[in-house]
């Protein structure tokens, strides 16, 4: 018996926050909510610091220069 497995990589296209979570919109339309407690640097950051992000690797990762924080999108899925 054969099983066909399809692996699709998804890249981030947008990021936003509420008080407890980071939300990531992916290029395939999904939205992922991640608890900020998973990332203490983000949890403890100011709103300005959290919103000062940039996508790296065409959306494969998210980088916060002032926080010295990088998150790989595949690690969130």
Chart the SSEs and their pairings:
Layout: E1 12-17, E2 21-26, E3 31-35, H1 40-43, H2 47-50, E4 54-56, E5 61-64, E6 69-72
Antiparallel strand pairs: 1-2, 2-3, 4-5, 5-6
Overall shape: it is globular
Low-confidence stretches: none
Helix content: 10-25%
Described by strand count, sense and barrel closure, the largest sheet is: 3 strands, antiparallel
Count of DSSP E strands?
A: 6
Name the helix and strand elements from N-terminus to C-terminus, one letter apiece.
EEEHHEEE
Q: Count the helices. How many?
A: 2
State the end-to-end CA separation. 28 Å
Helix/strand/pairing class, anyone?
mainly beta
Q: What does this entry look like structurally?
A:
By secondary structure, the chain is mainly beta. The chain is built from 2 helices and 6 strands; from the N terminus they run βββααβββ. The chain has helices at 40-43, 47-50, and strands at 12-17, 21-26, 31-35, 54-56, 61-64, 69-72. A hairpin with a 4-residue loop joins strand 5 (61-64) and strand 6 (69-72). The longest helix has 4 residues, at 40-43. It is globular, with a radius of gyration of 14 Å. The termini are far apart.
